[in-house]
Each structure stands twice: as structure tokens, then as C-alpha cells.
User: Which sequence fits this backbone?
């Protein structure tokens, strides 16, 4: 990689051109030839661009590949095969592929999932090996490529011990855990969304029934309740994070208000975009750079969209969560519950001291294990708290009937 000063090209002057920029049918049909001409010129560029390169080695086999598959092929073959590495795949080159094919005895396409490059090569009249050799499903690896092409597969060393599995879980102190526990306990059907809270589907909570796409939770709940009516209205909710709601949830919420399905939506407001690295969002009051910005009031927004029933609960308060869920599901109109508490990993969140297990009171009933907190385990038949993980949120304390989980606060 070579570094250099960034060159900022001058901004182009905007010139009004209705025929070019307003794509109503009459203009669109006249612009179509320009689109096709641009694709032709891009294809010509693909034949000579630096992103597509030929690395000649042995000519018994020639490999056309891209992305991670290129690294796998390179590690397996080294210089024993010739490789055409494609960095620009739309549109795909033509003459570059044909010239490469003439230089090798056998042509192999290595690409994960759908045979996009392979089909293109076949349309060019080339005989290639592709999905007749490699699987259509799953991820590739160096060993898989070696095996499918008849090469020796390196054998690793396997431990005889059965290692414990480490499935992903919500963090200790995650504010979503209390709400998911409440939904699971009440056997509510939960249509989920995209975010770290998707982990609510993992045992022991196993609270999420469906996750499809961003914003899909609210639209799916609306359709679910429209289709099933009373059968589902009192036991189905949509669960969506605050940032996902701002990204893709508002149209679904408007649909519920406008088309009047008796649906309950739970917005998990952890005051940040958690899953992708703590980016700000329009509800936090700061922009992506951390500078002060306009802050959207979720309660006011939901009411403005036509919801009369909007309430806020603290997910660390299990009794309040239980009451809110039961009351809103019983209501004969659409409602929104905002489950609000900042992400436990935010730097400004001040945690309490870790809880302590009173060994004399703990009876080993494992009630505290029901929330799936990674800070809690069982040792010698008693609950144990990992004080490097516990943030003293107190959710597990509310599950212990024997008072064995004691605050570490002095």
C-alpha cells in the first residue's frame, strides 16, 4: 500500500436537466440507451482495470476466483497454478477471461455460493469446472478446495478432550435481558429484528420466534395479527432496537396505526447502536462524530404517529416489565412499550459492585440461571458470581426467593 495526500476534486456545477434526472416513463425510455452504453464502457474497463489481474504460474490448471476464495486458492496452489483474480465483478471482463483461458489446460472457477462467475464463463463458450466440483452451500476453506480438486489435505491435530461450547450471549448487565425474560416467562410470541438483541433467541431465554430483516419485526407483527386476529393479538409482540427503529421501523409502526391492527411494539432503547460498535443514532442527541445534534423523542414520535398508549419501563425492574407487557397485550388498541436503559458497555454508564453469593442461603435451585447471564454459573451445587463480569444490575436478585444474592455495595 502506498500513502499519499488526499486529492479532493472540484465540485461539479449542477445544471438542471429534466430529461436526464426526472425518470418518468417518457424520459426513462430515452435514457435506457445511455445505461447500456455505460455498461459496455464499464465492461471494456473491466478488461484492463488494475482490480482484475492475472498471476501466471503452472498452466495445467487456471483458476478464476475472487474475494476470500482467492486467498484459499493461493494458499493451496501457490505458484503451481495460474490465477485470474477478479476485483471488479460487475460487469465481468470478457477478453481478459478469454485470453486467460487460452493459456491454461483446465479452467476452474472458485467462488462461494451462487455460480455468478461460472455462468458468465459458460456464456462465453468456455468449458469450466465449478459447482460440479464445489458445493453451492456453506463457506469454503483451504482444505475443502484441496479435497475437491484431488490434492492432499493437511491433517491437523485434534484434542481428545471434549471442550465446552461457547455460544454467543448477551453481555452481563445487558438491559435487554430483563425484558426478554419477561416475554419468555409469559410465553409471548416475539417477532424480532436485527441487532445484538437477536441473541434473545439463544437458550435459556429462547424468547425470539422470528428475525428476518431490519424493520421486519413490526411489519410482521402487523400482518400476523391481521391474519390471526384475537388468536394472536394478546400474545404477540414486535421487538426492535432504538437505532433499528429509526432506520427501518417507523414505516411499519405507521402501518399499524393507519390500518389499525391491535399490535404491541416494544422498542429496546439502549441509547446507542450496540451491535456494530456503539455508533450514535438520531435518538441519542449526538451525530456520528459525537457532536451535539437533534434528538428525536421516541415517546413524542410514537404519539404523533397515532399511538395513544405509549409507556416507558426500566428493563432492570422485572415487576414493571411484567405489568407493562400484560397490560399492553390486554389493551384493545395498538401500543408501544419503550424498554429504556443504556447499554452496559457504554463508557459513561457507572456500574455497581459485583453481587456476592451467600453460600448459607443458596439452595442450588438455579432460578438465577434462567436469565442466561454469563456472570452466573454453578460451582459445587451453588450459584457463583464472576466478579470480573458482574455489573451489579440486580436482575438475578429478583429471581432468588432465598435472598442468597447480596449486593456488593458497602
Assistant:
Amino acid at each position: 500500500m502506498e500513502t499519499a495526500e488526499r486529492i479532493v476534486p472540484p465540485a461539479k456545477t449542477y445544471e438542471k436537466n429534466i430529461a436526464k434526472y426526472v425518470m418518468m416513463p417518457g424520459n426513462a425510455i430515452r435514457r435506457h440507451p445511455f445505461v447500456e452504453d455505460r455498461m459496455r464502457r464499464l465492461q471494456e474497463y473491466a478488461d484492463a482495470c488494475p482490480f482484475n489481474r492475472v498471476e501466471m504460474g503452472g498452466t495445467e490448471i487456471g483458476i478464476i476466483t475472487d474475494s476470500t476464495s482467492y486467498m484459499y486458492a493461493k494458499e493451496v496452489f501457490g505458484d503451481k497454478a495460474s490465477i485470474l483474480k477478479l476485483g471488479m465483478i460487475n460487469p465481468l471482463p470478457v477478453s481478459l477471461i478469454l485470453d486467460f483461458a487460452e493459456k491454461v489446460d483446465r479452467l476452474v472457477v472458485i467462488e462461494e455460493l451462487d455460480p455468478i462467475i461460472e455462468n458468465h464463463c459458460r456464456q462465453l463458450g468456455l468449458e469450466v469446472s465449478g459447482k460440479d466440483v464445489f458445493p453451492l452451500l456453506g463457506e469454503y476453506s483451504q482444505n475443502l478446495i484441496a479435497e475437491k480438486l484431488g490434492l492432499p489435505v493437511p491433517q491437523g491435530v485434534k484434542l481428545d478432550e471434549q471442550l465446552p461450547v461457547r455460544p454467543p450471549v448477551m453481555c452481563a448487565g445487558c438491559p435487554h435481558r430483563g425484558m426478554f425474560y419477561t416475554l419468555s416467562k409469559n410465553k409471548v410470541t416475539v417477532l424480532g429484528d436485527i441487532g445484538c438483541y437477536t441473541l434473545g433467541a439463544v437458550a435459556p431465554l429462547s424468547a425470539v420466534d422470528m428475525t428476518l430483516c431490519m424493520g421486519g419485526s413490526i411489519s410482521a407483527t402487523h400482518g400476523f395479527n391481521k391474519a390471526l386476529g384475537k388468536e394472536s393479538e394478546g400474545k404477540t409482540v414486535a421487538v426492535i432496537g432504538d437505532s433499528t427503529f429509526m432506520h427501518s421501523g417507523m414505516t411499519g409502526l405507521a402501518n399499524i396505526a393507519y390500518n389499525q391492527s391491535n399490535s404491541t411494539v416494544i422498542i429496546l432503547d439502549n441509547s446507542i447502536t450496540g451491535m456494530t460498535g456503539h455508533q450514535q443514532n438520531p435518538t441519542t442527541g449526538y451525530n456520528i462524530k459525537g457532536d451535539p445534534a437533534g434528538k428525536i423523542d421516541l415517546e413524542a414520535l410514537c404519539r404523533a404517529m397515532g399511538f395513544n398508549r405509549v409507556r416507558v419501563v426500566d428493563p432492570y425492574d422485572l415487576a414493571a416489565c411484567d405489568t407493562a407487557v400484560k397490560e399492553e397485550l390486554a389493551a384493545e388498541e395498538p401500543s408501544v412499550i419503550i424498554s429504556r436503559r443504556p447499554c452496559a458497555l457504554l463508557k459513561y454508564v457507572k456500574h455497581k459492585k459485583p453481587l456476592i453469593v451467600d453460600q448459607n442461603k443458596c439452595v442450588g435451585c438455579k432460578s438465577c440461571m434462567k436469565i442466561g447471564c454469563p456472570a452466573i454459573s454453578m460451582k459445587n451445587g451453588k450459584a457463583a458470581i464472576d466478579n470480573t463480569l458482574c455489573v451489579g444490575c440486580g436482575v438475578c436478585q429478583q429471581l432468588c426467593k432465598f435472598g442468597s444474592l447480596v449486593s456488593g455495595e458497602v
